Fold this sequence. Notes:
This protein has one helix at about 240-250; strands at about 10-15, 45-50, 60-65, 65, 75-80, 90-95, 100-105, 115-125, 125-135, 140-150, 155-160, 170-175, 180, 185-190, 200-205, 210-220, 230-235, 260-265. By secondary structure, the protein is mostly beta strands. The longest helix is centred in the last third of the chain and has 8 residues, at about 240-250. The model is unreliable at about 5-40 and about 250-255 (pLDDT under 50).
Amino acid sequence: CCRPSLALEVRTHSAEGKVGITSSNAEQKVNATSTGRRGEPRFRHRLRICNTYPSKAAFAVTLSKTKISKAPLEYKSCEEYEPPVKTGDRLEFHVGTTMAGSFVISDLPQHDAMLVLVLYRQSPSSTAVAFESHIFANLVNAQIAVIDAYKGRQQAELRIQDGSTAKTSRSEALQFDNVVAVNPGFYEVVAEDLSGNMLARQELVALNRESYLVLRVGMELVGTENEEFPQELLVFPRSDPKVLLEGAAWSVKIPTATLLLCLVAAFV
């Protein structure tokens, strides 16, 4: 149940880069579109966009010149969109009338997929927008992509552990730039400094067939910056615990000694 249906490749690049959401599986490198040609299957390609760029400014999102965001995307927020998407489409991000960055979709998989795009600041000394992209594999298990968008000198290690009400007390390290699969359950994601002191904590309710993002965000005060954005953890989406409790009434849970079932993909 923890075998990815697609080999994945994740790339980071500058705001004007032409690298898009791609697959390292050569057979998947075709110009599949979400609308499809006559007689071809239609694929559901959803866009999940997260803004981790430390700023009070929010980004309006357009796809090939058509606005898809109902409201500007603020810092520490994520939204999902489901517009018709095809190879070569350009996503643009605007602050007011100024375009802050753009991203070209260079390839799409030939199956239903969740396409993830994370905006972040290139470095504390630069105001340039950069992106990180990912395509989630089609798995039954819940998946968690772990991304470090924090800009500063402070180092941190992430752990995922059983929730405070669990009968077990398992805990495992989460590596940045990796995607892992987990069983359904109530979890906590914790960020600690290298001495083991807690920096941030977030709850994560994991449901089967859902794909989650765990993002370390924030920016240290550098140079002429007049505002510091504290180090935090962002989890998206926030699943409803009631759904998990309702499912537990009829499902049989197989206990495991470890939290993480497998490594689904590593960012390269």
